[in-house]
Amino acid sequence: MSRDIYLPQMARIEKIIPENPQIKTFVLCFVDEDFNSSFSYEPGQFMMVSVPHCGEAPISFSSTPTRPGNIELSVRLAGKLTGAMHELRLGDLVGLRGPFGTPFTMDKLSDRNLLFVAGGIGLAPLRGVINYCLDKGGYGKITLLYGSRAPDDIAFSADIKLWQKKGIDCQLSVDTAAEGWNGHVGVVTTLLAGLEIENPKSSLLCGPPIMIKFCLPELSKMGFTDKEIITTMERHMKCGIGVCGHCYLDNKLVCVDGPVFDLAQLKAH
Amino acid sequence: MNGFILKKDNLVPLLRKLRKGGRLVAPVQNRHGDTMFTAIEDFDRQHIDLKNQAQASLKPFFFPQEEPLYTYQNKKGYDFKPVNSSEPTIFFGLRSCDLTAILYMDVIFSQKSPDPFYFERRREAVLISLGCSRPFANCFCNNSRSGPFLEYGFDLQFTDLGHCFFVEADRARGEELLERWSCYFTPATEEDCRNKYQVVLEARSSFKQTVHVDQAIKKLTADIDLESIWKELSSRCQDCGGCAYICPTCTCFTIVDQPVDDTHGTRLRQWDSCTFAGFTRMAGGHNPVDYADHAIRRRFLHKLKTDVEKHGRPSCVGCGRCVGICFGGVDMIRFIKMVNELPAEEGK
């Protein structure tokens, strides 16, 4: 980490992948080559992204550190900064600070069957974890439940196709069907009914608060203990290092104590 | 204790000498009658006021209400240049609560790695405190263990003995000052030490407020149901942020970009407050905190529970300023009294 903890490092946009009408994945490379080659991070961490005149916002890695060289941030168009970011083009620069936050403890997940549950942009941080598992190996059976509002909103389709080829059980659901959709309709939690995951197992969730809320009791019913239910949270943040106060969650600060928490940690306050 | 005596006639001559080593900041009463920490430019025209509590603490001198962190440009590339604004400063006449608050800020601004902007100012600061022989109307530092006199943390601590000041050093920088300006000081006699002790004892017994901070902390730690208090106080909160701004230990901030033109701008850090509804609101509008009922929950729990767990002491220093500033009566004394009035058996 640089001496000046608030000073962004410049990064160039190498590629822009439109994932759906609201989400773009930005493939980024630090301008300083030495910095770029020594930069490392872990799945679940995030960067503070600067866009000219827009300040900074926290964005999770959607890439995996097992594929070094550049990093990927998937951004949903939600406000001023993300709006400006969606206007950027190849070769444009953004500022990056980080990596920040407590990552997923990937070591503790090895040999376990993993159930990923994602809603919307929530698949972005889990995408990095799934690719990490595939690259490293040594993890059990992987199942992905992914919910979107409508078929057009399904993001990361290319990844999902690739994951299916590699043996991941990917089950998609949409809240509202459209013509030509033959898949499951309903909130993603409905996919949990009838699903059986063998022990040892862990579940990794990321999605809107309402999705998390409805998943928790279902997962408990399926036999996941509190420590086996892991989520990554989204909060308003300004510093990323546990000072500015914006991301408080009871006695915790999501930027340093999280964003990855297991349910046991969330219940203890 | 190695104490020294400074005659009151020698105070201004000493301060004149100290001012040659940097900016001198002391409590000054302005022509409106307000006492504020102010840089001394002219000893003859500025009245150093050691009788009244300064309206604001020293917080803004270390952590300004608004400060430029960087200037940036995106005309050729996109880059940031740090803005440095610090000068050696001697702070005279700060009280024990304000000094305790600075020691707390030292901890907060070194969480992951030292905050360069804060510590640049902190390194260049000499802190000469004045113990409170006569506590002010809303003070309860004896209950929050941050006064009226301190054992450590100051460079020099002054005690008003009536006809003279008793002066003691805690840090090397204070010792150096005593040595360098030894012509103004005489070693304290045993009688001076006894007098000082007497002043401290009298000060401790002359507080007008009794606020049972420890009892409230104990109840908060036991997780009693506080919903009724949150609702009542949140409905009285007018969302002005005055409590956070005046509080010597409220350090929450926001960072924003202020464009100068299309391709240049300044990245600013500004005070923020957890009582503002926008504090936790995310892009897209979702807010994880229900401000109607919980606007002030974070403020009190952070100071009396979270910081006790994290840092071993509450971050309220008992200065009483929030009591004076809030027109809704949502202050620390009111909150602590409400908590202590709740029956203990409501604990889980």
Walk me through this protein's architecture:
The complex is a heterodimer of chains A (269) and B (348). With 269 residues, chain A is of the alpha/beta class. Chain A has 2 domains: 9-100, Elongation Factor Tu (Ef-tu), domain 3 (Beta Barrel), CATH 2.40.30.10; 106-267, Nucleotide-binding domain of ferredoxin-NADP reductase (FNR) module (Rossmann fold). In chain A, 23% of the residues lie in helices and 30% in strands. Chain A is built from 8 helices and 15 strands. In chain A, a hairpin with a 2-residue loop joins strand 13 and strand 14. Chain A is globular. Chain A starts with 8 loop residues before the first strand and ends with a helix. Chain B has 348 residues and is an alpha+beta fold. Chain B has 2 domains: 3-204, no CATH class; 213-346, no CATH class. Chain B is 33% helix and 21% strand. Chain B contains 13 helices and 13 strands. Chain B has helices at residues 11-19, 59-62, 96-108, 116-123, 172-180, 190-204, 213-221, 227-236, 242-246, 291-294, 297-311, 321-325, 332-341; strands spanning 3-7, 23-29, 35-39, 47-48, 66-73, 79-82, 89-94, 125-130, 156-160, 164-169, 185-187, 253-261, 264-271. In chain B, the strands form 2 sheets. In chain B, strands 1, 2, 3, 4, 7, 8, 9, 10 and 11 form a 9-stranded mixed beta sheet that branches. In chain B, a hairpin with a 2-residue loop joins strand 12 (253-261) and strand 13. In chain B, helix 7 packs across helix 11 and helix 7 (213-221) crosses helix 13 (332-341). The longest helix of chain B has 15 residues, at 190-204. Classes of the chains: A alpha/beta (269), B alpha+beta (348). The A-B interface holds A 1, 3-8, 10, 31, 50, 52-57, 78-82, 93-95, 208-209, 234-236, 238-239, 241-251, 256 and B 69-70, 72, 74, 77-80, 82, 108-109, 111-113, 115-117, 251-257, 259, 263, 265, 267, 272, 274, 279-284, 286, 288, 298, 301-302, 305-306, 309-310.
